[in-house]
Design brief:
It catalyses: a primary alcohol + NAD(+) = an aldehyde + NADH + H(+); a secondary alcohol + NAD(+) = a ketone + NADH + H(+). It is an enzyme of class 1 (oxidoreductase). 25% of the residues lie in helices and 25% in strands. By secondary structure, it is of the alpha/beta class.
Amino acid sequence: MKAIVIDRFGPPEVLRTTWLPDPEPGPGEVRVRVGAATVARTKDVAVRAGRPPFAEQVRTFPHVLGTEHAGLVDAVGEGVDTALLGARVAVSSALTCGHCRYCAQGREEACPEFRLLGIHRPGSYAEFTVVPAVNVQVIPDGITLAQAASLAVNGVVAAAQLAAGGVGPDTTVLVLGAGGALGSTVAALAASRGSRVITVGRDPGRLAGLPLAAAIDSGTDDLTGRLRSAAGDDGIDCVIDNLGIPALWDAYLPALARAAVVVVSGSITDDPVPLRFRQLYLHSHAIVGVRTANRTHRDNLWTEVSAGFRPPEDFVHPTPWDQAVDAHARIEAGRSGGQIVLEFPGVAERPRR
């Protein structure tokens, strides 16, 4: 099979195309012919560059990057239902033990043996992957493989974040970084659930196409006042903050409603935010860290997809797989909004026999 690999950490140009043996599925596994693979800022771009948090966990070279993806089930291992052959599937990158106390509770995201496709085993920058059968989700008709791949990474985490924040009808949610791959999906999914969505960013004009109640420029004077005005008398019920910028924290904290929840799944800086316990307990506020989604979140997300939910159209960017170097460079330079998805040509309707 053709694969895009790295032989060392470095700039985007270390990505190269080569030939590798076709992988074979073992017991409980399936082989997927990859049609679309997401390019992730942390799990792909940062790893390729040798940056934390995952680069140090790559043990051997050449290494195949790539996490969430979508394609066709091409072969199945022992114990897997052959009805999956030929199915269009989205693939989760999370690899868990399945038997610890957290997995038994349906909290796979907390598994102490948590691993990732594309970090701890060969990933999806290749014509074929081999993954546990429990990691694949049959996708409905009417959705492209690129959309499915994007939802496999962003949709399920968005579902987990909104669940942690109690976001639903008649709530107000503030989404930071809504121009990005995850943020745009969070905003769209929250709105589809009947929430009023506000966002703060450096260029609100880039957010056209998102179902927003208000898009506020982060450089505006009196940002707290603007947030209070946009949220109304009750305030902001939930903040999805994957940035961790102290100045934004200081601005939105006074605009929170009682019993509000701040949900965190990432940070672009190691600078600490000024956390004060008194603010938390006097207003019944909570801060929740969401590592990734579990199967309940995944099932709920795909139920909504079957009912018609789609990622924001202008925020999924299919890109030919042989432009991976450029895709990495664009993300690294901050020139890419939304989700870049590498598309692999020649994905047949039926699997290879």
